[in-house]
Design a protein that fits this description.
The protein is of the alpha/beta class and 305 residues long. The protein has helices spanning 39-46, 117-120, 126-137, 154-165, 176-184, 215-221, 239-243, 258-269, 285-293; strands at 2-6, 14-17, 27-37, 59-60, 64-72, 84-88, 100-104, 109-110, 145-149, 169-174, 189-192, 205-210, 224-232, 248-251, 276-281, 300-304. The chain is globular and about 55 Å long. It binds NADP nicotinamide-adenine-dinucleotide phosphate (NAP). NADP nicotinamide-adenine-dinucleotide phosphate is lined by residues 38-40, 125-126, 129, 149-150, 152-156, 173-175, 177-178, 193, 211-212, 216, 233-234, 252-254, 292, 295-298.
């Protein structure tokens, strides 16, 4: 079968033929309809997260997949061949960007019926992370104001939608190319970060979700008062600097959870929008990987093996 493979750290992934895998006990073989790329895949390929997710080369890229069950391993119950499912694999194992993938049955959830199956792969990391941010860590309530940077990006677009649904006033930053999209997803206010310092528009918010870091993180502390919360996604925040101002700053480490993913899939059936930046065949997946690595995707990059 065809797959996109890491061959070494710092080397662009390549399309390669590898044997079709077989499901072991408790596992299923999925025929992959769509796989979504994430910045984590770029970081893994660069060796930046080796301490958390070490790779044994060669290794198939990707964690997020949607497809249909092709075959069941021994002892699998509760699913049947032909079921449309979603899964997020262990980042150290990857395996999503291939014609077939083997995953533990415990990681599967039913795919939402309301969205095309390939696009549903985009829920597995980005939307599940956004759910964790909004409903588990930020505990967003009606009347609170949440600022999320990058509201047209993969995670940011889902944070906008979930926070809006939770009743928050939602402010986001985006480049001019992403502003209309972020507004369409439900942001009350969109600030073009390339022309405007967001601090001049929103001097005070309750929660900041920061998938950027660096100068964006430092500026974000200025709009959070004592008791405010900064949730960092890209790099661990400077918790001491925040604490000195009475602000809680946390790095959120997304962990796969099938129960959470099932809630996210249900949200997609209830109208959660999966914005697709582009859909490409596996032959073009390395170029799509390069595009994502630029850091300006608008929604999810989907590969169709
Ligand atoms: N900690 C975790 O568990 C976890 C989980 C998921 C993701 N993440 C991390 O979160 C980050 C974002 O992930 P993603 O999937 O959303 O990436 P993505 O789909 O590539 O989106 C990135 C977005 O960031 C925006 N952006 C770039 N520079 C910006 C700036 N200075 N100010 C505001 N927005 C800016 C871009 O918007 P424009 O195109 O408009 O510039 C783009 O839409 C990545 O670093 C990823 O690794 C961490």
């Amino acid at each position: 079968m065809k797959s996109l493979q890491y061959t070494a750290y710092g080397v662009r992934p390549v399309v390669a033929d590898i044997p079709k895998p077989s499901p072991g006990p408790g596992e299923v073989l999925i025929r992959v309809s769509g796989a979504a790329l994430n910045p984590l895949d770029v970081k893994i390929g660069a060796g930046q997260v080796h301490d958390y997710f070490p790779i044994a080369f060669p290794s198939v890229v990707g964690t997020d997949l949607a497809g249909t069950i092709e075959r069941m391993g021994p002892g699998v119950a509760g699913r049947k061949v032909g079921d449309a499912v979603l899964a997020r694999t262990d980042p150290a194992s990857g395996g999503a960007l291939a014609e077939y993938a083997v995953v533990p049955v415990s990681s599967l959830v039913a795919a939402p019926g309301a969205v095309p199956l390939p696009a549903a792969a985009g829920l597995a990391t980005a939307a599940a992370t956004a759910w964790q941010v909004v409903f588990e860590v930020a505990d967003v309530q009606p009347g609170r104001t949440l600022l999320v940077h990058g509201g047209a990006g993969g995670v940011g677009g889902f944070v906008v939608q979930f926070a809006r649904r939770a009743g928050a006033r939602v402010v986001t930053t985006a480049s001019s190319a992403g502003a209309a999209l972020a507004g369409k997803l439900g942001a009350h206010e969109v600030i073009d970060y390339t022309t405007t310092d967001f601090r001049t528009i929103v001097p005070h918010v309750d929660v900041v979700v920061d998938p950027v870091g660096g100068a964006t993180e430092a500026a974000s502390l200025d709009v959070l008062g004592p008791g405010g919360l900064l949730i960092a996604l890209n790099v661990p925040p400077n918790a001491e600097r925040a604490a000195a101002r009475g602000i809680r700053a946390e790095f959120l480490f997304h962990t796969s959870d099938a129960d959470r993913l099932a809630k996210v899939a249900a949200a997609a059936d209830e109208g959660l929008e999966i914005v697709v930046d582009r859909t490409v065949p596996l032959e073009d997946a390395a170029a799509a990987f390069d595009h994502l690595a630029q850091g300006h995707a608008k929604g999810k990059v989907i590969v169709r093996p």
